[in-house]
Fold:
Amino acid sequence: MMTHSDVINSVPQTATPGTPAAVHQLLSARRFRPAETLPWVLAMAAYFVLPQYFQLGAQILIMVLFALSFDLLLGYGGIVTLGHAAYFGAGAYTAGLLAKYGWGEPLSALLVSGLVAGILGTLAGAVILRTRGLALLMLGMAVSLLLLELANNLTDITGGADGLQGMNLSPLLGQFDFDMFGKTAYVYSLAVLFVAWLLLRHLVNSPFGRSLVGIRQNPARMQALGVSVWARRLTAFAISSALAGIAGALSAQTSQFVSLSVFGLELSGMVIVMLVMGGTGRLYGAFVGATVYMVAQDMLSKDQPTTWLFWIGLLLILLVLFNRGGLLGLCDAARRRIVNKEAP
Structure:
């Protein structure tokens, strides 16, 4: 079982904001690199090569977005919470209720869902972020549990334990119906993920993003430099919550069903596992971790429905013990070995 400090220590360290090294790092990070096109090339190739997996592919893309939203908190802000599913669920139920009661246009509903989740995250974060350690973990978890009980008891509105059903979505852009094979869902999820990735890439490579890293490493020093630590962390919490809500709304719209599990602790724990597996504080760790987890779940659960989590747990333990940079850290280590061997 990883402790709070284990998760924080798995985040890669960077130069202190404001130093010449940090400025160089910031300018270098803003430049697009050819390798950054790889996830998108693979996603577009999957559209043509693996059409039978559109539904699974859409789920993977949604989980990547959810993991990206949480990486802003964990990887960059150093905020560990067990309640991030609260905002995913808030977005899912908002989109589902809008579609059920007459607001079937998906894009506007997506934005409204993100706004609702962002407001919820701002209100919750204003309280949660005044604590630290175990109290922070418990308060985050409490928000999810409260929303779960609320959704469970409002049976006439949410469907309770039976889930929210009966959504009527309009065609995307007035042209593309959400078909049973998941073709529209896949393209829709990919497009939303790409926009969110561009936003987060700009954000984490901006002075705001660098200040978050500084706060994660040494909040007292950042406070002494005149940075409002609490306000920066709350802003990150609100943005992260809004993006998680958009991921939840995508899940509701593409599956046209919302269950109480969207508020579950399992989902909050799963997104942490995905990030630690892929590598935190790098954006691309969300792509790797979420994809590996979802594909492993799909493949292993068919043959080992009761024990597939054992292999996920084993991989996680090995990564935490021997390479806290996750799977991306392993790739970096392999690349360095190859470069060193080729060097004269």
Q: What stands out?
A: The mean pLDDT is 85. Residues 104 and 169 are 4 Å apart (CA to CA).
